[in-house]
Specification:
CATH topology: TIM Barrel
CATH superfamily: Aldolase class I
Helix content: 25-40%
Strand order of the largest sheet: 1-2-3-4-5-6-7-8-9
Distance between the termini: 83 Å
Order of helices and strands: EEHHEHEHEHHEHEHEE
CATH architecture: Alpha-Beta Barrel
Shape: globular
Structural class: alpha/beta
Length: about 260
């Protein structure tokens, strides 16, 4: 058995940095983030037409020369018991697999990593690991599970990024810096600009959050803690990078009079 597929994007150039990929959308999520733009997948997935797996498989197999892999997102992919089988199907086609996750199922993530079924993980970090998390996730989040997923990625070999959609209704600039401190030493931290319009909480649809210039300035501050930080939409060349710690200067020996 494979999970239902409720959306299929044949080609994307922005959802896996440096790759040309196809993208599939799985239904359902254990979070209810007010800023979520995928309410149709989260709240009413049964109203969406299902896409047969074979049609996705046949397309990506025929296009293997032109695409590098498949991005699996949602919703939350890790709520599906069949996620390993789905990843395995694409790996058997010798395609790369990227998964987008909220990190609340560390056991599932660990199994995917151990079995080498994913090549890239993008994990959302909603807020600092405190009560703020529950407010922005819309549910009573197991914060220990989030912390475990962060640790799994940081100690593992699979390429990954952490990302935060920065909505000033919930998060101030100090919150973002606290997240960067939490993932101190991370390879990549991406700040995503909040945009209203189709939020799960419609009262946020017209909300104006931080500007891109403010986020760029914030990325500079975050780069004190992570290896690379940038605002989604910038090129990797524009990333702010962590500066190596300079060893303390030692006073030169004064040989005068010796």
């Amino acid at each position: 058995m494979l999970p239902l597929i409720k959306g299929f994007l044949k080609q994307t150039l922005i959802d896996w940095e440096g790759k040309i990929a196809s993208e599939i959308f799985l239904p359902g999520c254990n979070f209810r983030c007010p800023i979520c733009h995928s309410a149709h997948l989260v709240i009413n997935p049964n109203t969406l037409e299902s896409i047969p797996f074979y049609s996705v498989r046949d397309f990506v197999r025929e296009q293997k020369k032109w695409i590098d892999g498949v991005v699996i997102c949602g919703g939350e992919p890790c709520i599906h018991r069949e996620i390993e089988s789905l990843c395995s199907e694409f790996k058997q086609l010798e395609l790369g697999v990227k998964i987008d996750t909220n990190g609340s199922f560390p056991e599932v993530l660990e199994s995917l990593l151990d079995k080498r079924l994913v090549d890239f993980v993008s994990m959302d970090i909603k807020a600092p690991i405190d009560d703020t998390y529950r407010a922005i996730a819309g549910v009573d989040v197991d914060l220990a599970a989030i912390g475990k997923s962060i640790a799994l990625l940081q100690k593992g070999e699979v390429d990954h990024e952490f990302r935060t959609t920065v909505c000033s209704f919930f998060l101030d600039k100090s919150d973002i810096l606290n997240i960067a401190k939490t993932i101190d030493g991370a390879r990549k931290y991406v700040l995503q600009e909040f945009k209203g319009g189709t939020c799960l909480d419609p009262t946020l649809n017209s909300y104006q959050s931080f500007s891109r210039d403010e986020l760029k300035e914030l990325a500079i501050q975050c780069a004190e803690y992570v290896e690379s930080c940038y605002v989604r939409g910038e090129s990797p060349a524009q990333a702010r990078t962590k500066q190596p710690t300079q060893p303390p200067k030692t006073a030169e020996k004064n040989n005068e009079g010796s």
